[in-house]
Write a structure and sequence with these properties.
The protein is mostly helical. Helix 7 crosses helix 8. It starts with a helix and ends in a 21-residue tail after the last helix.
Length: 175
């Protein structure tokens, strides 16, 4: 029972922090980023908050993410179980510490892996539809654009000095 209450409190705090960070870091607005530096900063901050716990701070994947947790929290089978639903409502997560059905979250620094999406638009729509795992589609469009640009930078598919606008997504080939 104590573990369930602790999980519920943790997830509630995580959800509140996500709301605050998304509001501060990625306010709604224009289809084009204000500057490449601003977009890179926003994308990195959103990634750190919404993606790094599973994909690792540097985008190296599950092994990097697991290593960031204290040793007594590195048993990922507590949360990742094959029999779990693909999406689990927050209310159900509080009842079970086995929240995710996915296997190991992949590294995001692999340009070849990201190239499977064809274009930045393909990657953007996949991320928007499926991430963050605990609340897919919960970020605003600009936040997903910023995270997409961050992922492309991690994989070396977008130069640090380049910005990515919504209008450029379809034309940005991932090769």
């Amino acid at each position: 029972m104590r573990e369930v209450v602790g999980s519920t409190v943790f997830l509630t705090v995580l959800a509140l922090l996500a709301t605050v960070v998304v509001t501060i870091v990625a306010p709604g607005g224009s289809a084009a980023p204000a500057s490449d530096d601003a977009q890179a900063s926003r994308g990195a901050a959103i990634y750190a908050f919404s993606c790094a716990a599973c994909h690792g701070g540097g985008g190296q994947g599950f092994a990097e993410a697991v290593a960031a947790f204290p040793p007594d929290y590195q048993q990922c089978t507590r949360c990742h179980q094959p029999q779990n639903a693909a999406q689990m409502p927050g209310s159900q997560v509080g009842l079970s510490v086995m929240a995710f059905s996915l296997g190991d979250p992949p590294p995001l620094t692999d340009a070849e892996r990201l190239a499977r999406f064809g274009t930045a638009a393909g990657l953007y729509h996949y991320v928007r539809a499926t991430m963050p795992r605990w609340a897919p589609g919960s970020l605003d469009d600009e936040a997903y654009l910023d995270v997409t640009s961050h992922l492309l930078r991690l994989a070396g598919l977008l130069a640090d000095e380049e910005a990515l606008s919504a209008a450029q997504l379809a034309g940005q080939r991932l090769e």
